TrEMBL record:
Domain named Quercetin 2,3-dioxygenase C-terminal cupin: residues: 148-233
Species annotation: Acidiluteibacter ferrifornacis
Cofactor binding, note field: Binds 1 Fe cation per subunit.
Full protein name: Pirin family protein
UniProt record similarity statement: Belongs to the pirin family.
Residues at which Fe cation binds: H58, H60, H102, E104
Occurrences of domain Pirin N-terminal (ranges): 12-120
Keyword line: Iron, Metal-binding
Keyword Heme included in the entry's annotation: no
Source superkingdom: Bacteria
InterPro entries: Pirin (IPR012093), Pirin_N_dom (IPR003829), Quercetinase_C (IPR041602), RmlC-like_jellyroll (IPR014710), RmlC_Cupin_sf (IPR011051)
Length: 237
């Protein structure tokens, strides 16, 4: 088993006034030669957007972009004609493919929005752009991981153009679960949304991350009440 640990305080940070953001991997003005990616996982940004503010219309191509709101309401508009609001309990995917323009704004004028912005390199380039979002409120479970993203459109959760799986787990203190790697050659990036856990013997706290590969599974034990995101991705670009 191989692993790499990224403590929350070591992430890149930028405060633009309207946007307070932390970067697990190199992004924008944050450059770290040893933090360019974890396999095909290229970006993991922890964004907080001020009331009524947001990202103006901008382009993307050949990237799978996943947004997971943690607090507040995020309004999305894109060049395919999609207009939607995502909030805590939703997962959104934008498969940029041949190219797309979109904007993201804090829907509310009186409270912040906090969300994870995740970019994954696609399995196939120049596909037709696609948008999807789901509510995970009806499928969420307690004290075990449940799937919110996969490579298959008929599977539970949203799907993307890559051999990747996302799972979320909400745990009570003292509870645990084992996660089995779905595909040989994949690794898992563990990101702690809330609380403290022990992963394969290593303690991780809120917003800490750990990448694990060359192992068939991993064990997550909740030290306190915790919420954990697992991002399984191919390790080879």
């Amino acid at each position: 088993m191989n692993r790499i640990i990224h403590k929350a305080a070591t992430r890149g940070h930028a405060n633009h006034g309207w946007l307070d953001t932390h970067h697990t991997f190199s992004f924008a003005n944050y450059r770290h030669p040893e933090r360019m990616n974890f396999g095909v996982l290229r970006v993991l940004n922890d964004d907080q957007v001020s009331p009524g503010m947001g990202f103006g219309t901008h382009p993307h191509d050949n990237m799978e972009i996943i947004s997971i709101p943690l607090e507040g309401d995020l309004e999305h508009k894109d060049s395919m004609g999609n207009v939607a609001v995502i909030k805590e309990g939703d997962v959104q995917v934008l498969s940029a493919g041949t190219g797309i323009y979109h904007s993201e704004y804090n829907k509310n004028k009186d409270k912040k929005v906090q969300f994870l912005q995740i970019w994954i390199f696609p399995k196939t380039k120049n596909v037709t752009p696609r948008y999807d979002q789901i509510s995970i409120r009806d499928i969420e479970k307690t004290n075990q991981f449940y799937q919110v993203l996969s490579p298959y459109k008929e599977d539970q959760g949203v799907w993307i153009n890559q051999d990747a799986w996302f799972h979320i787990g909400k745990f009570e203190k003292g509870k645990s679960d084992n996660y089995e790697i779905k595909k040989t050659g994949n690794g898992v990036y563990v990101f702690i949304l809330e609380g403290s856990v022990e992963v394969n013997g290593e303690q991780l706290n809120k917003r800490d991350g750990m990448g694990i590969w060359d192992t068939p599974n991993l064990q997550v034990n909740a030290i306190d009440r915790a919420r954990v995101l697992l991002i399984e991705v191919p390790m080879n670009l």
